[in-house]
Amino acid sequence: MPDVSEIHERLIKAYIVAGMLAEAAEAADKLTSLFASPETFLRAASIRAQLEQWQHTEDLLSAGLKMFPQSTELRNAYGDLERTKLRSSAGQLTTHQRGHQIRTGYLHP
User: Fold this and answer.
1) CATH second-level architecture of 4-103?
2) pLDDT reported for residue 94
3) Mapping DSSP to helix (H, G, I), strand (E, B) and coil, where does residue 36 land?
4) Model confidence over 64-82: pLDDT tens digits?
5) Domain segments of the chain: what residues?
């Protein structure tokens, strides 16, 4: 029988497959508070990035880094987000390109 974290992962995947990203984001956020790990923070941040919720993405990565400062993956994802924000503020990327940039970096769902 799967444990609670596995059930949450399945729920998140089901929401993603069904195209219900907002619901997937909420479930992923909840998973970070129930079972905090670098992976759960990356998953939640990735989904928020797909929704182009940049502040929420940054907040999740910051919270993850506070709990797991040794996580290379979280540091890399945060760096990707910062670089994307800098290019965006310089007018170099459209909103669609920003989402694609984050999704193809370390923030895979």
Assistant:
1) Alpha Horseshoe (1.25)
2) 52
3) coil
4) 999 999 999 999 999 999 8
5) 4-103
Tell me which amino acid residue 47 is: I
- Where b means 16+ CB within 10 Å and e means fewer, 46-80 reads bbbbbeebbebbbebbebbbeebeebeebbebbeb
Q: Which two tokens stand for residue 66?
A: 């506070």
Q: How far apart are CA 25 and CA 28, in angstroms?
A: 5
Helix ranges (DSSP H) in 1-109: 4-17, 21-34, 38-50, 54-67, 72-89, 95-103
Lookup: tokens for 28: 């992923």
Instruction: Kindly list the distances between the CA atom of residue 69 and the CA atoms of 1, 64, 74, 77, in Å, as whole numbers in the listed order.
Output: 33, 8, 8, 13
